[in-house]
Design a protein that fits this description.
alpha+beta, elongated, 8 strands
């Protein structure tokens, strides 16, 4: 009878003891978990505030979209021309006063030239007018032949990597009643579209693997 009473009492005692222990353990785990979550939330809040402060003080550099004469002045360029399936490369310097200086070329022989360049005030587009005097060897009783050829280069400016570049179309010169001291004149857009004869690219010579010469020396 006593043994039976002990057996009946022991489960209740054991259950109470285990329950109390489990309660203490659950309370301890909950307290530790709550502390961990609070620390995590505090850390995330600090990171968010730091990121917001950094974005407010850091200026992200955006690609350059507008250019001025200063970006082109006194630079040496490689002028690559494609006209009637004929390609040529010529050294070009765009001078501060709006004039042009040519250098070495792998194209037809140039004996003289005049030219000028500018940027449009409204759009910033590039304009260059170049008149070159070419010389072609004669044959037999005909001596060397010289002829003048005028071309207008209409293009837009952009960055290719870290180098400035001008690309566009080549236009043949059209007769006009309005002429300047070089017998040159620019024409309206429609007239120039009707006179497209080729394409050109002009890139900073520092980034080009083209020909190399001396400024003002037409042929090496």
């Amino acid at each position: 009878m006593l043994l039976r009473s002990i057996i009946l009492i022991c489960p209740a005692v054991i259950h109470g003891f285990v329950s109390s222990k489990l309660g203490v353990t659950k309370h301890h785990v909950s307290t530790q978990l709550a502390g961990t979550m609070d620390a995590y939330d505090a850390q995330m809040l600090a990171l968010q505030r730091a990121a917001a402060a950094a974005s407010a003080t850091t200026t992200v550099a955006s690609p350059k979209t507008s250019y001025s004469r200063e970006d082109l002045c006194s630079k040496e360029f490689q002028l690559e021309e494609l006209e009637d399936k004929e390609e040529s490369e010529t050294e070009v310097w765009l001078n501060d006063d709006g004039s042009i200086t040519l250098g070495a070329s792998n194209g037809p022989l140039v004996t003289d030239y005049t030219g000028e360049w500018h940027l449009l005030e409204t759009t910033g587009d590039f304009r260059m007018r170049l008149t070159r005097r070419f010389e072609s060897p004669g044959s037999g009783r005909i001596g060397d032949i010289q002829y003048d050829l005028t071309r207008e280069f209409w293009g837009s400016i952009e960055m290719v990597g870290e180098s400035i570049c001008v690309t566009g179309k080549i236009h043949a010169a059209l007769p006009s009643l309005e002429i300047n001291q070089y017998a040159q004149s620019y024409h309206d857009d429609q007239a120039m579209q009707d006179s497209e004869v080729g394409y050109f690219t002009m890139i900073d010579a520092v980034a080009s693997d083209g020909i190399e010469g001396v400024k003002g020396t037409l042929h090496p």
